[in-house]
Specification:
single chain; alpha+beta; four-stranded mixed sheet; three-stranded antiparallel sheet; 8 helices
Length: 197
């Protein structure tokens, strides 16, 4: 079955959605221990969250890239996630979505969140023909993410290493069975209409 070009796929429950980030052990392990991001975590910088486990693996090299050795699964409230979508702007100008480039630039400057649609990845981290969501949080969105939306933080670095080891040995079926189950996220038209670039 052919996948829609733009669709949020994620592990989620009735109340939370799982997003992924990767940090140095100094930040990541402390976040897991305390259940919240430590003081060293920069609230004044944009932070990107990714609902796709395999896109995160592509970004952090299975937890092997410098400064990204600790892979976190962050459970956040669906209310918070949907607030971020409603208040987001596409990170690049798209003719037909935005009236003109100047309007897009004004929207981008005001928006506390931004969306990028990047090629989803397969187990070998090769691009697929459909897109995965990346959500960039800044300003008010970063504060809400850290202080209001975050419900739990888990270290999934061992999972990343286990899946990578199976892929390296060519055991793709076994690797697939370990992956988080990501299903189409039921984001209504009101959340995505302005983000389908």
């Amino acid at each position: 079955m052919e996948q829609p070009q733009h669709r949020i796929r994620a592990a989620y429950s009735e109340s939370v959605i799982t997003v992924y980030q990767a940090y140095s052990p100094e930040i990541g392990l402390r976040a897991v221990r305390d259940g919240r991001f430590p003081a060293a975590w920069k609230r004044d910088r944009m932070t990107w969250i990714k609902p796709s486990f395999l896109w995160m693996m592509y970004r952090c090299g299975w937890g092997a890239k410098a400064g990204q050795e600790t892979v976190l699964a962050v459970e956040i409230s669906r209310d918070g996630f949907e607030w971020a979508l409603r208040n987001a702007c596409l990170s690049s100008y798209v003719r037909g979505v935005h009236p003109d480039r100047a309007t897009w630039q004004r929207q981008l400057k005001r928006a506390p969140t931004r969306v990028q649609w990047d090629p989803e990845r397969d187990l070998r981290l090769q691009p697929l023909p459909y897109r995965a969501l990346q959500l960039g949080l800044s300003g008010e969105a970063v504060r809400r993410y850290a202080d209001e939306w975050t419900v739990a933080i888990r270290d999934v670095t061992p999972l990343a290493h286990d899946v990578h080891a199976l892929v390296s040995r060519g055991e793709l079926d076994s690797a697939t069975r370990l992956l988080p189950q990501e299903l189409p996220y039921p984001a209504g038209e009101e959340h995505l209409a302005h983000l389908l670039g």
